[in-house]
Amino acid sequence: MKGVITMNETAKNGENYIGYEYKEVLASRDKEGVYADGYPNFGWKPEGSATPILGISAVNLRFKRDRKILNKAELTRLQRQFESNVCEIEKLEQSKITAAKSSLLPSDLLERLSWQARRLLS
Predict the structure, then answer these.
(1) Which residues are paired to 25 by β-bridges?
(2) Distance of alpha carbon 23 from its chain centroid, rounded?
């Protein structure tokens, strides 16, 4: 997860007031589905998405939920755990890429260097 912004707003609906919390999540495109499927489990309703100025590799997801939702403290705790798990998955995926690149170093690098050296000499 790249960034989370939370705001509060009160909307007037006749004589009843409904207070909403708003959340924006800046996520990579490949994790868009994870967040879109995950946040409704914590009472969040999708509001839309937009591509931020940073580029097309990220998406800005917007959600809202009733501020007076039942069991809010427990939902918030579970949501934080969900966000932590998604971050851990991203780190593991990144380490998989890093490990694959580092495994190329000893033998493959020498082979590539010798191939390039032969090519330059011929």
Answers:
(1) 4, 61
(2) 13
Residue 35, CA atoms < 13 Å, CB-side half-sphere: 29
Could you tell me the strand order of the sheet in which 58-66 lies? Answer: 3-13, 16-28, 58-66, 45-50
Domain spans of the chain? 3-121
Backbone angles phi, psi at 51, to 5 degrees: -85, 120
Rounded distance between C-alpha atoms, residue 119 and residue 98, angstroms = 29
Please give the chain's pLDDT, 122 residues, in tens. Answer: 555 555 555 545 456 788 999 999 988 888 888 999 999 999 999 998 887 776 678 889 999 999 999 999 999 999 999 999 999 988 888 887 776 666 655 556 556 666 566 666 65
Reported pTM:
0.66
